[in-house]
Design goal:
The protein is mainly alpha-helical. It has one helix at about 25-145, and strands at about 1-5, 10-15.
Length: about 150
């Protein structure tokens, strides 16, 4: 039983319509089918050739990539080693920077203490100078009294 779709309806066909065809029509249909088969086979052959070419190109590309990986691996190993060395250097610098901050704080405290001591010394020196000036004035006054 053959089935055909026309205008959205399913038509069931009970007879083989090719039996009604004349012999020459059958031969034409068979020729068209053979031509179609030949076209499909040549298309498949063409696709296989194209896929074969693509596969060969892909293999060459994979080979190049692998060769370049061999060329660049030592560079990458060196880069990784350099990065590790830089990280260690940064850690040392950070540690040294922390130590310097501690020393700077100690120096700041020492400078503050020296400034305080200098203020005290200046104050004592002013008092001493003031006392010395008063003693000198008293001494001059006592000499002038004694000479009179």
């Amino acid at each position: 039983m053959l089935v055909s779709l026309s205008e959205g309806r399913i038509n069931y066909m009970s007879e083989d319509l090719t039996k009604k065809l004349s012999g020459s029509d059958r031969d034409e249909i068979l020729a068209v089918i053979k031509n179609l088969e030949s076209y499909i086979r040549s298309s498949i052959d063409s696709l296989q050739t194209s896929v074969g070419g693509i596969d060969a190109r892909l293999s060459r590309l994979e080979q190049r990539v692998e060769e370049r990986l061999h060329d660049t691996r030592p560079i990458w190993h060196r880069v990784v080693a350099d990065i590790a060395q830089l990280q260690a250097s940064v850690e040392r610098l950070e540690k040294g920077q922390g130590e310097l901050r501690g020393h700077i704080l100690d120096l700041s405290r020492a400078v503050r203490d020296v400034n305080r001591d200098q203020i005290v010394i200046n104050d004592v020196a002013r008092r001493f100078s003031s006392t010395s000036t008063r003693l000198t004035n008293v001494s001059i006054d006592s000499k002038s009294i004694a000479t009179k």
